[in-house]
Design a protein that fits this description.
- The chain folds into 2 domains: 3-99, RNA polymerase sigma factor, region 2, helix turn helix motif (Rna Polymerase Sigma Factor, Chain: A), CATH 1.10.1740; 109-182, Orthogonal Bundle (Arc Repressor Mutant, subunit A), CATH 1.10.10.10.
- It has 9 helices and no strands.
- It has helices at residues 3-14, 18-40, 43-60, 71-99, 109-120, 124-132, 135-146, 151-158, 162-182.
- Helix 1 crosses helix 2 and helix 8 packs across helix 9.
């Protein structure tokens, strides 16, 4: 990484230059993607973690102190922290799921299509189940499934991480699926 160039971009961003962070992002995106890809080998997780890193960097950039820490170390520190958080969350969720003897939830395209199909018809059961969802889950589900918007866009609008949006969508779909099965 070009340390001086990155430090200058972060300094300019902190000074109010909105284009400076865009340039910083473009310069470092391939490296951060590579960092996560080498560690996860999961394209979706790689993209999610990369987005979380740059969201965190954008927020923290005004506090970056050039000369105190190299810009690359600062960014990779954020990346390592996000990866660690992701692994910890995964272990906690996996442990809880196993303790409850629950199978991992896998939602495929066919199930998404069924939800969309049922949503397009009048279904009092589905309307009732949808109305019972917490506001955040309902908003995430509408944005992702009905409006077919991308996770990064939804996360930015909801002012949260993509992972949290994915969890909300997943939980909302799980609730709807269980209610649909009950009504059969």
């Amino acid at each position: 990484m070009a340390e001086n160039g990155d430090e200058d971009l972060l300094r300019r961003h902190a000074g109010g230059d909105p284009d400076a962070f865009v340039a910083y992002y473009r310069r470092n995106l391939p490296r951060v993607l590579s960092f996560f890809w080498r560690r996860t080998r999961d394209p979706e997780l790689t993209a999610d973690l990369t987005a979380e890193v740059f969201a965190a960097a954008l927020i923290a950039a005004p506090r970056f102190q050039p000369g105190e820490t190299p810009a690359s170390s600062w960014l990779y520190g954020i990346a390592a922290h996000k990866l660690s958080d992701s692994r910890r969350r995964g272990r906690v969720e996996d442990h809880a799921r196993r303790r409850l003897a629950m199978e991992p939830l896998v939602i495929d395209d066919l199930e998404l299509e069924r939800v969309e199909e049922m949503a397009s018809r009048a279904h009092p059961e589905l309307d009732s189940a949808f109305a019972q969802l917490p506001d955040e889950q309902r908003a995430a589900l509408l944005a992702r499934v009905v409006d077919e918007r991308a996770y990064p866009e939804i996360a930015a609008e909801m002012n949260c991480s993509e992972l949290l949006v994915r969890q909300r969508v997943s939980r909302g779909l799980r609730h709807l699926r269980s209610r649909i099965k009950e009504s059969r």
